[in-house]
C-alpha cells in the first residue's frame, strides 16, 4: 500500500534523480551540499559529505507517473521538489511555499492544495500502474 509518507519519499528520490541527470542505470548516489560532522574523535570542524542513495528504476516510474498529470500539477511538483518553473526558469537558493507561490502567481493556500492534489495524483497513477 502506498501512503503519504511513501509518496513523499518517492518524490524526494525522484527529485535527486532528476537533479543528477535522470540516469536509468540502476541505483546511484547523490552527494548533497549538506553535511554531518564526523563522529567524535575526528578533527573538529571537519564534515563528511552526505551521500544519499538514488533508486533510479523507482524514480523513472515516478517520473512516468508525473508525466500523466495535468501541466499545472506537473509544474507545481517540479517547482517544489526540483526548483524548475514552468517556462524553464529555476528557483535559486533556498525557497519555501511563499516563494514558489509568488513565482507561480497563486496564493499559498492554492499552492498547498495543488501540492496535495499532485501527490495524490502521483499515488493514484502508481497504484493504477501496479494493478493494470
Please provide a written account of the structure.
The chain has 132 residues and is α+β, with helices and mostly antiparallel strands. It has helices at 4-19, 56-67, 71-82, 97-103, 108-131; strands at residues 28-37, 47-54. Strands 1-2 form a two-stranded antiparallel ribbon. The longest helix is centred in the last third of the chain and has 24 residues, at 108-131. The radius of gyration is 17 Å and the shape is globular.
Give the arrangement of secondary structure elements.
Layout: H1 4-19, E1 28-37, E2 47-54, H2 56-67, H3 71-82, H4 97-103, H5 108-131
Helix pairs in contact: 1-2, 1-5, 2-5, 3-5, 4-5
What would CATH call the homologous superfamily?
Winged helix-like DNA-binding domain superfamily/Winged helix DNA-binding domain
Determine the strand fraction and express it as a percent band: 5-15%
Indicate how many domains the architecture comprises: 1
C-alpha Rg (nearest Å): 17 Å
CATH T-level fold name: Arc Repressor Mutant, subunit A
Strand order of the largest sheet: 1-2
Task: State the shape.
Answer: globular
Oligomer: single chain
Number of strands: 2
- Largest sheet properties: 2 strands, antiparallel
Amino acid at each position: 500500500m502506498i501512503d503519504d509518507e511513501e509518496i513523499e519519499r518517492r518524490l524526494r528520490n525522484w527529485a535527486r534523480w532528476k537533479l543528477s541527470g535522470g540516469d536509468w542505470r540502476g541505483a546511484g548516489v547523490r552527494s548533497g551540499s549538506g553535511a554531518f560532522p564526523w563522529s567524535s574523535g575526528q578533527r573538529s570542524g571537519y564534515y563528511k559529505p552526505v551521500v544519499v542513495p538514488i533508486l533510479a528504476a523507482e524514480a523513472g516510474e515516478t517520473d512516468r507517473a508525473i508525466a500523466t498529470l495535468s501541466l499545472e500539477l506537473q509544474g507545481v511538483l517540479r517547482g517544489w521538489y526540483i526548483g524548475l518553473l514552468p517556462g524553464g526558469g529555476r528557483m535559486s537558493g533556498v525557497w519555501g511555499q511563499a516563494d514558489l507561490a509568488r513565482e507561480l502567481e497563486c496564493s499559498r493556500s492554492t499552492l498547498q492544495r495543488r501540492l496535495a492534489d499532485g501527490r495524490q495524483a502521483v499515488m493514484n497513477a502508481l497504484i493504477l500502474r501496479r494493478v493494470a
